[in-house]
Amino acid sequence: MACTAAITGVTITMASGETNTLNVAVAADTYISAKESSDHTQDASLYVSSLPTNRRTAFVRFSVPKGQAVAKATLVLTRDVHHFPATTVSAAAVSTDWPQPMTSAAQPAGGEALDTQKVDGSMDSVALDVSRSVTGPGDYAFAITSPVADGAVRFRAQEYGTAAPKLELKLGDAGGNEPPVVVPSGTAGTATATPTKPPATTGPPAIGSPTHTSSAAVTPSASTTTPSGPGCSVDAKLVPSCGVWFGAAPAARDASMPRDRALADFEARLGQPVDIAHTYHVDNQPFPNDTELAWANDPKHARLLLINWKPTFGHSWAQVAAGAADAQIDKIAKDSRSRYQGKFFLSIFHEPENDVNPAAGSGYTAADYQAMYRHVALRLRADGLTNAVLVMNYMGAVKWGVADWFGELYPGDDVVDWIAYDPYASASAGFYDGDFADMVNRGRTAQWPGMYDWLLKNHPGKPVMLAEWGVAENPGSPTVKPGFFEQVSTALPKFPAIKAMVYFDTSQATVGDTRTNTTQQSQTAFNRMASQQAFARTVVP
Predict the structure, then answer these.
(1) Cis status of the peptide bond prior to 180, with omega within 30 of 0
(2) 90 and 22 in one domain?
(3) Domain of 369?
(4) Given 3-state DSSP classes, what are the helix, strand and coil percentages for the chain, each rounded to the nearest 5?
């Protein structure tokens, strides 16, 4: 998951063969739905629809640096390969002051449409003329809608590199001054550098990946992280014999902070290193990248890696299962094997429930997911990537658990080493309230036993991981987090199958602000929880 709703900077590249044209990468994007109040800033796709059952509007934002005058500005949106039916799309200028989180009830004010274009399945992208809005340096934002009845379309979002939304700018002055390439946040137009070529891949850039990644083999660190205490050990599947791994996805939705700095900041707040560092990759992004290798090979504290990877390469689940992405999978496996030989957790297409389309032939049925996961897992093993400990990562929400297709998602014990899910808690009254036990087994009904109990019943013996968990609070309830964290260590022994917990630390979680340091009391309670014997670790050289 990796879009952001905060302007962090802008990458600008020269269009091939044209010295008077600039391509400005999207700084932020998201979409809103009339049916829900969820935060979609990290979704990999931008949905637009005018369906009677649900109206969706996408938003994109750009920072144009100082330089020559803009003669023409074109907003380019790339289609999602399996969702681009015939419809009509419009772009309208909106305020760059975006509410957090953005919902249908809280969205930027907008004006009349700047351009409207018809699109169909034969097109790879749509170009919308926004010249009336973009006239020079500054921040610009646009709302994307479908103005026709029953219109629906899906575009690729910020994660997709050169396939992400972009502004193509035709400059009014082609006088020879090279345009800026990267403009840091808050300094639009002040930095200049030699233009660089766009990245070769159209896949999303890896969270935490540096500008350049080395393909050289890296020898695993001799240090290993092991549970503390006499007689504790870790087996070949990274299951600790005693205690629970403690991890984090730091600044998970804050693209303004590099991943290495985010982890350093989180660990500084915590007062100790984490056991697991959690990151996200899609398609051709190499893993582990250089940042992740530094974490895994840290001579002072070698961290385990939890890498979520969505390997669809623009194909449906059914197409991947049929071999459409085999060449790319083989290349990724070869590269990963050359970069790192240590054990690491690998989740293949996490949280699939929200992407299931149960219609026969959709390519996205639960059975298609199962087949895709199995195909990718077995292909990786055949390619020699045997150091990846495979994780099946559910969302774990009751609304999916009661779906008649839910059980079909599971790929099989032979290709699943750990089972994970992603529960959250908040101060808001309703579904997400309650203590740790409620969070772990939320939504228990006659039809649904709760995710933890469902796993015990259907897949006994598999180690369980909370791959994302977090506690949010309303501004008026700052006491929720300290009280929640205080009771975790005493409640945890009631769930012995849980062998790892990875905290999702962000100001932009779906349920609210899950950062541990929203108050000093919260951070103190979190640190006290993490230092309990259940989580305590030591580094063994």
Answers:
(1) no
(2) yes
(3) 224-540
(4) 20, 30, 50
Q: In whole angstroms, what is the distance from residue 51 CA to residue 55 CA?
A: 6
Q: pLDDT for 359-400, tens place per residue?
A: 999 999 999 999 999 999 999 999 999 999 999 999 988 888
Residue with tokens 């205080």: 486
- pLDDT tens, residue by residue, 148-168: 777 788 888 886 766 789 999
**How far is 362 from 118, CA to CA, in rounded Å?**
24
Alpha carbon 78 to its chain centroid, in Å, reads 19
DSSP letters spanning 331-385: HHHHHHHHH--S-EEEEES--GGGG---STTSS-SHHHHHHHHHHHHHHHHHTT-
Mean pLDDT across 108-124:
81
Q: Would you say residue 216 lies in a domain?
A: no
Q: Residue 293 maps to which CATH number?
A: 3.20.20.80
Are 295 and 303 within 8 A, CB to CB?
A: yes
What DSSP character marks residue 151? -
Distance CA 285, CA 283 (A): 6
Both tokens assigned to 399? 């609304």
Q: Of 22, 98, 85, which Cα lies nearest the Cα of 58?
A: 98
Same domain, 133 and 276: no
Per the structure, the count of domains in the chain is 2
Q: Which of 24, 124, 113, 131 is CA-nearest to residue 71? A: 131
Q: How far apart are CA 76 and CA 156, in angstroms?
A: 11
The Cα 359–Cα 363 span in angstroms is: 9
